[in-house]
Hints:
The structure is a single chain. The protein is an all-beta fold and 491 residues long. It folds into 2 domains: 2-296, Glycosyl hydrolase domain, family 43 (Tachylectin-2, Chain A, 5 Propeller), CATH 2.115.10.20; 308-490, Jelly Rolls (Sandwich), CATH 2.60.120.200. The chain has 1 helix and 38 strands. The chain has one helix spanning 460-463, and strands at 2-4, 16-20, 23-27, 33-34, 36-42, 49-55, 76-80, 83-90, 95-101, 112-114, 122-126, 129-134, 145-150, 162-165, 174-181, 184-191, 199-205, 213-214, 231-241, 247-255, 269-277, 283-285, 294-296, 308-310, 322-323, 331-333, 337-341, 354-359, 365-373, 377-385, 388-397, 400-409, 412-421, 425-432, 436-443, 446-454, 470-476, 480-490. A hairpin with a 7-residue loop joins strand 16 (184-191) and strand 17 (199-205). The chain starts with a strand and ends with a strand. The model has no long low-confidence stretch (mean pLDDT 98). The protein binds (Z)-L-Arabinonhydroximo-1,4-lactone (6LW).
Amino acid sequence: MIYQNPVVRGFYPDPSVCCADGKYYMVCSSFQYFPGVPLFESSDLVNWKQIGNCLTRKSQVMLEKAGSSAGVYAPTIRYHQGRFYMVTTNTSVNRNFYICTDDIHGEWSDPVFIDQDGIDPSLLFDDGHVYFISNGTDENGREGITQCEIDISTGQKLTPSRHIWAGSGGRYLESPHMYHIGDYYYLMAAEGGTEYGHMITYARSKSVWGPFEGYSGNPVLTNRNLGGFRIQGVGHGDLVLSPSGEWFIIHLGFRQTDRWMPYHHLGREVFMTPAFFGDDGWFTAGTNGTTAEEYEITGSFVQQRKQVYTFGNTDFSVDWCYLRHPHTENYELSSDMVVLHGTDITIDDVDSPTFIGIRQTDMNGSIVCMVSEDSGEAGISLYMDENQHYDIAVRSCGNGHEAVLKLNIGDIKHVQCAVPLSSGCAELCVNMSPLGYTFSVKDGENLHELGYAQSKYLSSEVASGFTGVIIGLYAQGNNRAEFTGFKVKYE
Ligand code: 6LW
C-alpha cells in the first residue's frame, strides 16, 4: 500500500523505534512538557497510536523551571529479552539516564544515570554486551560519537568512554544509533543541525569499536538541496525492519510553509523513508537520498488519520500534556468538562501555569470551546513558548467580562481586541490555516470577529527552540474556569 508522510503529525521530534513480539514501539522528545517521552504503538509502521508516556512521575525527571526546549531531549527505545529500555538526556540537569519496564502498557522504573556526557544517547545489546553511545566527549576530551560498555543492571561503565566516529564533516554530529546487521556494525547519525541542512549519515565497521569507514555517498538521506519542497529538515532517524522484511528509516522532518524564506510552526514530525541494502552491504535511502511525500510498503491496510479531537475521544493521561510538573489539584478532567483553577502563575512564565494542551497536528482546521470563568482569565492559547503565543480568552474586567485576543510575539505583548461580554461565558473559536489563525467569539447569538494573526510568528524560525505549536487550555488569576464542548477538527 501507499502511505503518506508524515506518518505522525505535529510536534513529535527525534523518533526512535524498536520491535517486540510483532508490534512496534516509538518514542519522541518532550522537552519542558510533562508527562515526558510520548510512547506509540503500531503493528504496521504506518498507523501509530499513542499508548502513553515513559516519564510519568516527578521522581523520574526534574523539570522544575526547565527552560522551553530544555528538559528531555532525544530518546532511544530498545527491547531486549522481554524488557524495554528508554534512554535519554535531561538537559536541564545535563545527565543521561535510562529507565526500563517489562510491561509496555505499565509504569517505567526510576532512572539509572550513566557517567558519559553528550546528548542523544542510544543502546546496543550485542552478544551479551551492552554499549552506550552518545555524541559525547571521550576520556581525552575529544568530541564526537562516543561509546562505552555498561552493566545494564547498574548503569556502571565497564570501559572508558571512547571516541569512535567524527562523522562526515557536517556540523552538529548527533543522534547516533548502532546496529549489528550481518557482518557489520552500522553507526548511523545526524549532521547539519535540526533545520534545513539536516541529514543522516552513516559508517560501518566489523568491530563495535571501529575503525568506522564512512559511506562514500554520505549524506545517505537529506532534503537540504530540495529548495521549495514541502518536506524539509529530514534527519535524526532510526533503522527498522518492516513486518515483511523491508528496511525503513523512521526519522524527523518538518512541513514548511511558504516557498521563499520558509518557516514551520507545527514542530518536527515523524516521517518514514525506505532504505535499500546493496550486495556490498552499504545501504541507500529514499528517492536518490531524499524523502518524498509518499512511499510504498508491503501490506494491505489503510492509513488512518484522526481528524477530530474532543475531551471524550482523547485520553487526558496520554494525548494531553502540561507545562513542567503540574499542580494536579488545579485540574478536574472528565470526558464532558475540564475545570481549571488558575493561580498567579501565567503562561508568560517559565513555570507551571494551569495549562493543559494537545498538539496542533495539521495546518487547516478549527477549534471551538465554551469557556466560563469567574474572576480572572481563561481561554485557548496557540502556544509555542512563553514568549510566542496567541491567546483568545474570557476575562474579568470592572464588574463584568470581556473577550480578548492577545498576541505575544517576543517582547511585544499586545491586546489586539477586547469585546464586552454579557456574562463570563462565551464560545471561543479559532480558524486555522497554513498562514495564520482567525479568532472569533460567540456571546449567545452574537458573533464577534476578534482578528487574525500570522502563523509565522509562532514558528521555530522566529521562536527558536525545538518544539511546535500546542493548543492549550489555560486559566490564570486565581479563578475557576469551566471548558465544555471542546473540539478540534482538521480538514
Ligand atoms: C536532539 C538532536 C536534534 O537532541 O535536536 O534533530 C535535538 N536533532 O538530535 C533536540 O530535539
